[in-house]
Design brief:
By secondary structure, this protein is an alpha+beta fold. The chain is built from 11 helices and 12 strands. The longest helix is centred in the last third of the chain and has 21 residues. The N and C termini lie close together (about 5 Å).
């Protein structure tokens, strides 16, 4: 099921020549709970106009996974979605969906055994007492735990506060030419606990201890241009992050299997790490050919995993 959360979020962004940062949909922002510590977005409409989308979406692996997603979830992200906004409080997530279909059209698609029409304070929901889709209006759906959806309705009068201004400010630092983005507090990330101290992933919690927020932005216009920014507690934590990323890059050159190392070498060569006070910025880019090779490695591995 994890891939059905990740893949749509690997899919989105409207670029504006007059804006320097990503624009949050003003219709969705008031719905975001006050305890949110991480946000992510996919701007599907703009992404579907890119050469990257055209090339990757025609691959057999991508087509298979999108067909599976459509069958299991009930709607097709290749044609039914306009925008997806993801919000997490570190324990559970909500998905805010701007769609191209009406409630009447989606109900037959997402209906599953045990799903039924629910209602709360005049708002229609479709699901059960564990998980549901909340229809805020004709083009906006919120999906998540049913009780959490009821809390969103209760909070519409503003009595429970609004999303952190600091988190919104960090989202405003994401470049406008972005199709997929995430602003996350480390506590919201699924980090490993314990394990072998020589394992890179096992050291992530210690490395991120000095980080307040991470922002990730992907521009998929032609290939991928990525920017990862670590907003740290102090200059020392930012310097440690810079050194760690450089170390991980060097380790990847030595530790990857020879075939993967050769295929991903252009991406590794493009990595740049910049230090600016309490901020560490990492950039890398890959052309379409490299991205297609990376997609093949990822999706072939995904197809071998049990459901």
């Amino acid at each position: 099921m994890l891939r059905y959360i990740v893949l749509p979020l690997l899919l989105l962004s409207a670029c504006s020549s007059t804006r320097t940062s990503v624009m949050l949909d003003p219709a969705l922002v008031p719905l975001i709970p006050a305890d949110t510590i991480s946000l992510g977005g996919i701007r599907v409409d703009a992404l579907q106009k890119t050469e990257t989308w055209t090339r990757l979406s025609n691959s057999p692996q991508w087509t298979r996974l999108m067909d599976e997603f459509t069958k299991d979830v009930g709607f097709d992200p290749r044609k039914d979605l306009m925008e997806v906004l993801w919000a997490s409080n570190g324990k559970e997530s909500l998905y805010f969906i701007r769609n191209k279909f009406s409630q009447m059209n989606i109900e037959p698609m997402v209906r599953r055994e045990g799903f039924k029409r629910l209602s709360y304070k005049g708002y229609p929901l479709l699901g059960d007492e564990e998980f549901a889709a909340l229809f805020m209006n004709a083009s906006t759906i919120v999906a998540g735990r049913t009780e959490r959806l009821r809390e969103i309705i209760d909070a519409r009068d503003g009595s429970k506060g609004s999303i952190s201004k600091e988190l919104l400010a960090k989202a405003e630092t994401v470049p406008a030419a972005t199709h997929v983005w995430v602003v996350a507090a480390p506590s919201a990330l699924p980090l490993p606990k314990g394990g072998d101290s020589t394992n890179m992933l096992a050291n992530l919690p210690r490395l991120l201890a000095g980080v307040q927020y991470l922002t990730v932005a992907l521009d998929l216009t032609k290939g991928v241009s990525a920017q990862l920014v670590a907003h740290c507690n102090d200059d020392q934590a930012a310097k440690q992050m810079q050194n760690s990323i450089k170390g991980l890059t060097a380790f990847a050159r030595l530790g990857l299997p020879e075939k993967q190392k050769t295929e991903l070498l252009p991406l590794l060569d493009s990595i740049e790490v910049q230090l600016n006070g309490k901020t560490t910025t990492t950039k890398f880019a890959a052309d379409l050919a490299t991205l297609e090779r990376f997609q093949t490695i990822f999706l072939v591995g995904e197809s071998r995993r049990p459901n």
